[in-house]
Amino acid sequence: MITLQVNGDDRICEPNLTMIELLKYLGLNPRLVAVEYNGEILHRQLWENTIIQNSDRLEIVTIVGGG
């Protein structure tokens, strides 16, 4: 197991998850979030190839529609 920080909280997950797998593991719809990964916005096209590492820091924002 690895430990990472998600929105300021420590979380534990399986090693070797991709960003998409992590988002699903956290119960989030990957189509409805934006991700900052270790201080940088991570573009969606990189999510499939980004492997989550121990001590990574993520800020995940849910996109909300409305008017």
Estimate the mean pLDDT confidence.
Answer: 94
Strand content: 25-35%
Counted by DSSP, the helix tally is 1
Spatially, the strands of the biggest sheet line up as: 2-1-5-3-4
Low-confidence stretches: none
Alpha carbon gyration radius: 11 Å
> First CA to last CA: what distance?
41 Å
Give the CA-based shape: globular
Largest sheet: 5 strands, mixed
The portion of residues assigned to helices is 10-25%
Give helix and strand order, one letter per element, not per position: EEHEEE
- The total beta strand count reads 5
User: Helices and strands: which structural class?
Assistant: mainly beta
Question: Would you give an account of this structure?
Answer:
With 67 residues, this protein is mainly β. The chain has one helix spanning 19-25; strands at 2-6, 9-13, 33-37, 40-41, 57-62. The chain contains 1 helix and 5 strands; from the N terminus they run ββαβββ. β3 (33-37) and β4 (40-41) form a beta hairpin. It is globular. The mean pLDDT is 94. This is Thiamine biosynthesis protein ThiS. It comes from Pseudanabaena yagii GIHE-NHR1.
List the helices and strands and how they pair.
Blueprint: E1 2-6, E2 9-13, H1 19-25, E3 33-37, E4 40-41, E5 57-62
